[in-house]
Predict the structure.
Amino acid sequence: MRIFTIGYEATTVGEFLSALQQAGVERVIDVRAVPNSRRPGFSKTPLRNALAEVGIEYVHLRALGTPADGRAAARAGRKEELERIYAGQLELPEAIAESAQLLDLTREKPSAVLCYERDPSGCHRTLLLDAVAPDVEVTHLFA
């Protein structure tokens, strides 16, 4: 099984969609706690609509997002703090359930885990996949 990841930092919706299509992604799994964005087209509803126009499904798994204190740690470059906070998030019952759902969804069709950061090493999506899918092949897409 392979899981793709993608961030939308410093890209346009068109470039983002193109990267997904070129990789054969059929579903985007949004793991942002707050699926809003200052970047045009990347808030939940406009993004879902743009994806639908090119035949890509959208799923939002809110409980797999980073809590506010974790986002603050990430913005400040405090990676160890982010890791600690996010590990606690993944222990919550709703995150455990959504982690199982994430794996089920990625088995059904080619899927990409979405968050903001372009660099997956600085994003919780890498922490998520390391925790819940350590043996899965991960391919990072860059728009």
User: Anything to note?
Assistant: The longest strand covers residues 2-7. The radius of gyration is 14 Å.
